[in-house]
Design brief:
rod-shaped; alpha+beta; 10-stranded antiparallel β-sheet; Helix Hairpins; Glucose Permease (Domain IIA); 5 helices
């Protein structure tokens, strides 16, 4: 038990320095949960704002892509119409080619006939024809015919040359126009394909963004509901709970009850002989499992196991006054609970290494131990 006493001061100092009040398990309180939710909401709102901006930018890109595709579709339609026109021209040219081919054949025949007649006439000169003629009229006709053949030959050859030239020119022109239009259509098809692929990628990205926004907005709705519920809880607790102020504790000095109805096994020692530390409390005998009760209204600021003290409950009574109930077998209260005088806090036991069943009990003011026998009603000793 002496080892327990020697460690009590250090452990009690830990209790009141490292664990001064409700902040010990603040993360479990409604206020801390509310603050955590508000922090999550802040982060969520920032994410939503950034993502909505990204969505607006992506929608702008999709709009530009749609307009570009519309323009390309218009140009492709116009190109196709031009190609259709060129096809009609090609068909007309083919008809012209057939006609020119017929005219070429006819011109070839005429040229051949002219050449043949010229060859025949070339064997006899006009003078020979004149000398051989028996009648002047026949001579005149032969000369005129000779001249006509020469002229026909020249015209036929010229017509044939023009037909061939026109045919080659028309074919070359048609080929050039069709090649240009085909190149333009290929370019338009490539641009349209690239834009459609880009738009599909943008559409998929936008769909993912929309899904993420929907999920985050659902999460935000849930957080807002939780925030509202916690806010209502805090407001209700604020209305129901009156913080202890300490005046009534001071006023009850000398008339406070003991946490258990048992004799004092170890009394309060301000200066133990041979010891450098104070014990700071008393050990009250109590059967294992018996009820440990609050001696005065207060708030539970600590309810957990602590080295050297075992299972421990600390009440804050306001005004810097606290009471400590240690080596419990089990705890019946949680941090933040408000209790009235006489309400159960724990059950007595031997936790923390004590050799005797009971309750280690202390009263402290601003962290300094006070003799419980000066605050509580007279108790049995022995």
């Amino acid at each position: 038990m002496d080892s327990l006493r020697s460690g009590l001061m250090s452990t009690l100092l830990l209790a009141f320095v490292l664990y001064p009040g409700p902040k010990v398990y603040a993360e479990t309180t409604p206020q801390q949960r509310l603050e955590a939710i508000q922090a999550d909401l802040g982060r969520l709102e920032r994410w939503l704002q950034s993502t909505r901006r990204d969505r607006e930018e992506l929608q702008g890109e999709l709009r530009r892509a749609d307009l570009a595709l519309a323009e390309l579709a218009t140009r492709a339609r116009q190109t196709q119409q031009a190609l259709d026109t060129q096809v009609l021209l090609a068909e007309q040219l083919e008809a012209d080619i057939v006609d020119l081919a017929e005219r070429e054949a006819q011109a070839r025949e005429v040229v051949q006939a002219v050449i043949r007649q010229a060859w025949l006439l070339s064997r006899r000169s006009p003078l020979q024809l004149l000398l051989e003629a028996e009648q002047p009229e026949r001579v005149a006709r032969l000369l005129a015919y000779h001249e006509h053949l020469a002229r026909s030959r020249s015209e036929a050859i010229e017509a044939y040359r023009q037909s061939r030239s026109e045919l080659v020119s028309r074919r070359h022109e048609l080929d050039n126009v069709k090649e240009q239009l085909e190149q333009e259509r290929t370019t338009l098809d490539t641009q349209a394909r690239q834009l459609r692929e880009a738009r599909r990628g943008q559409g998929a990205t936008l769909a993912r963004i929309e899904a993420d926004i929907e999920d985050r907005e659902a999460r935000r709705t849930e957080l807002l509901r939780n925030q509202e519920r916690l806010q209502e809880l805090l407001e209700r607790l604020a209305r129901q709970v009156v913080e202890p102020r300490g005046e009534t504790f001071v006023a009850s000095r000398g008339n406070l009850p003991w946490p258990v109805q048992g004799r004092i096994l170890k009394g309060f020692e301000a200066n133990r002989a041979g010891a450098s530390r104070r014990s700071g409390g008393v050990l009250l005998a109590a059967a294992p499992g018996s009820t440990v009760r609050a001696i005065h209204p207060g708030r539970v600021v600590f309810a957990d196991w602590m080295r050297g003290l075992g299972l421990l409950v600390i009440l804050d009574h306001g005004g810097g006054y606290m009471t400590l109930y240690a080596q419990a077998e089990s705890l019946l209260r949680n941090v933040g609970d408000m209790v009235e005088a006489g309400e159960p806090l724990a059950t007595a036991g031997q936790s923390g290494g004590s050799q005797d069943s009971g309750v280690w009990f202390e009263i402290r003011h601003n962290g300094q131990p006070a003799d419980p026998t000066r605050w509580c009603r007279p108790a049995q000793r022995g």
